[in-house]
Design goal:
Layout (H helix, E strand, L loop, with lengths): L2 H26 L5 H23 L6 H28 L2 H8 L2 H13 L5 H18 L11 H24 L5 H26 L7 H28 L2 H4 L5 H14 L5 H17 L2
Helix pairs in contact: 1-9, 1-11, 2-3, 2-8, 2-9, 3-7, 3-8, 4-7, 5-7, 6-12, 7-9, 8-9
Length: about 290
């Protein structure tokens, strides 16, 4: 398998897992507040990666590299995830899906300025086709542009920008570092933001009844959706140009909508099918 194919497959797998995360999160978030859940996910994900790294051998990273990756983690798992939760709370889920779909466009811009990646005509066409596809899947007619949602929408835009920046910076830091180690240290970077916010939530909101299914859901979110999926996402950006692999992000709403139909009795429309086909076409164009 070529580096490009492996990178695209890794990105699709990560986005697919995150799409499935929607169904589990919908249940777990009724019991555990958002930032407390982020903290739990980061700790579980970090512990999982640490065990894997130690099984391979000693954990090696120079102090300078640690600081560099830790800072990147603050952007991705502290600021970006935090803005995403704040934006979703102050706005709507439909707005969140619409605004964050701009992430690959921002990746293209950041990759041009920070990594010197060329913006080719084929890549622009692939981005446009995939963007039209994801708009068909999420149906922007469900979005709301009320003035009362302005700050929430602004936070969602900030989440899309910072996640794009994080993804490009991951390609930069993994040029000479192990992706597993980078992923672990990046998780630690999210804790200075998520831990204080999570403790504040626990003091004011508290936690609901913890059942066996909630425990299974938390383990799934921490080990599969965080440790595995984030590693695959970081691996994809280490292998393939950031602007190209970013299009795999569009698989997330497709998988989420499909699983919502499968498990939550949500509706699949003809627009969803058309959008999925357009996203697939865009990915094929990008992988050329």
């Amino acid at each position: 398998m070529s580096r490009t194919t492996l990178g695209i497959v890794s990105g699709l797998a990560a986005a697919g897992i995150w799409g499935g995360m929607y169904v589990v999160s919908k249940v777990v978030l009724d019991i555990i507040p958002p930032f407390a859940l982020i903290t739990t996910r980061l700790l579980l994900g970090g512990l999982t990666l640490y065990v894997v790294i130690r099984w391979r051998g000693p954990l090696k990273i120079a102090p300078r590299d640690f600081r560099r990756v830790f800072a990147v983690g603050i952007i991705g798992y502290g600021i970006s995830l935090g803005l995403q939760f704040i934006g979703t709370k102050m706005s709507t889920a439909a707005n969140g899906a619409l605004v964050t779909s701009a992430t690959p466009s921002f990746v293209l811009v950041f990759a041009y300025f920070l990594l010197g990646e060329r913006i080719s005509a084929v890549r622009i066409v692939a981005l446009l086709v995939s963007t039209i596809g994801v708009l068909a899947v999420i149906d922007p007619r469900n979005a709301a542009l009320d003035a009362s949602l302005f700050w929430g929408n602004l936070a969602l835009l900030g989440a899309a920008l910072t996640w794009a920046l994080y993804s490009v910076l991951i390609r930069w830091v993994t040029r000479d570092l192990d992706v597993l180690v980078v992923s672990l240290v990046a998780f630690l970077g999210g804790l200075p933001v998520s831990v204080p916010a999570g403790l504040a939530e626990l003091a004011t909101i508290g936690v609901g009844e913890i059942t066996a299914w909630v425990v299974v859901g938390v383990l799934f979110l921490g080990i599969v959706c965080t440790a595995l999926a984030m590693y695959l996402w970081n691996r994809a950006f280490a292998l393939v140009d950031a602007g190209r692999v970013s299009l795999t992000f569009f698989a997330q709403p497709v998988v989420g909508a499909f699983l919502g139909w499968l498990f939550l009795n949500e509706t699949i429309t003809p627009l969803f099918i058309l959008g999925g086909l357009l996203i697939a076409i865009g990915l094929v164009l990008a992988s050329r």
